[in-house]
Amino acid sequence: MNVLGVETSCDDTSLALVRDGRLVGCLTSSQTVTHQRFGGVVPEVASREHLKEIIPLYHRLLSETGVLTSDLDLIGATFGPGLSGSLLVGAQFASGLSAHLGCPCLPVNHLEGHVFSVFLDGSPLPAYPWLILLVSGGHTALILALGPHSYRMLGETIDDSVGECFDKVARFLSLDYPGGPQIEQKAEGGAVLYQFPQSFLKEKDYRFSYSGLKTAVCSFTERNSFRLNDICCSFQTAAINPLLVKIKQALTEFSAKVLLIAGGVSANNFLRSGCLKIGEKHGIQVLMPERKWAMDNAGMIALAAYHIHKSGKGLQRRSIDPGWTLC
Ligand code: KG4
Ligand code: ZN
């Protein structure tokens, strides 16, 4: 079965081909440089770029994978959450192609796509339940996956997401967008010299909060002299530690068989090594995407579509939903 994946939820135009659950090819046209001068994604610019890129990218994917349009059996496209103009480009492209071919178009939730990014290396789906930490530019959530396509929200951020906090602090420190990789790189040469606030550490629930941390770092740097590496290292610790604390808490409350982390921030090595240590201590498997698949890509969307289709639980949503929640 040949599945075409289409991802245009934010600032990456990405198309991929998955055959029988294995990734055959993935092409991504990143708009990072275009948005860098604005310090963040400009929605109107993003959708225009998707429009320009998507059809040439589709032809390149077919020629590089040796697949014909008529070979496609299923199209999976991100229908939400994301920027509405950007989502529209991918969803319309996928719907049009599906009508032309007479093959189904399956709407994929971008967050469920991130969950499947960990299986792009060809590893099999483990037994449920899975404890999932979803950390992207727009989301910070702890979720329990009880079965295929069945999710229970344990808790999420009440304000900014952790990725957004990395980006905002980086911008304040005059580092490039996206801020996460920049801060991680600077943090390597620094030490935890400053204590910044970490929210909800003692509460029994699974809420997160990042707006206080952002404000604390920004006002500290306005009033004090500092070494950039130390600020980045102190900030990174304060941003990642609450995630690790809540994962440990959830693993004692729920009997998950697997810890899975996904979303752009799952590329962060401080988070990855913290999760591996927790996995060792609790004797559970830790799954995380290869770093190159942590950021948005259509491979994860095609793979999610393949598994959702196989489970017979695909949605018949016809229009995009910029606020589509996973559970
Ligand atoms: O999942 P993603 O590619 O896009 C969304 O769906 O939002 O996540 C992008 C986010 C950005 O906020 C970026 O700064 C963050 O992931 N990120 C990182 C790292 N790499 C990307 N944050 C911390 N450390 C990283 N190495
Ligand atoms: Zn994403």
Write structural notes for this entry.
44% of the residues lie in helices and 20% in strands. It is α/β, with parallel strands linked by helices and 327 residues long. The strands form two sheets. The protein has a five-stranded mixed β-sheet, sandwiched between helices. Strands 8-7-6-9-10 form a five-stranded mixed β-sheet, sandwiched between helices. Helix 2 (43-65) runs parallel beside helix 3 (84-101) and helix 5 packs across helix 6 (179-187). The longest helix has 26 residues, at 228-253. Residues 10, 136-138, 163-164, 166-167, 178-181, 184, 263-265, 267-268, 295-296 line the site of 5'-O-[(R)-(carboxyoxy)(hydroxy)phosphoryl]adenosine. Zinc ion (ZN) is lined by residues 110, 114, 136, 263-264, 296.
Helix/strand structural class: alpha/beta
Helix content: 40-55%
The count of β-strands is 10
Low-confidence stretches: none
The largest pleated sheet is described as: 5 strands, mixed
Strand-and-helix sequence, N→C?
EEEHHEHEHEEEHHHHEHEHH
CA distance, first residue to last residue: 28 Å
Structure ligands: 5'-O-[(R)-(carboxyoxy)(hydroxy)phosphoryl]adenosine, zinc ion
Strand content: 15-25%
The pLDDT mean sits at 96
Q: Which oligomerization state do the chains in this entry correspond to?
A: single chain
Shape: globular
The value of Rg in angstroms is 20 Å
Strand order of the largest sheet: 3-2-1-4-5
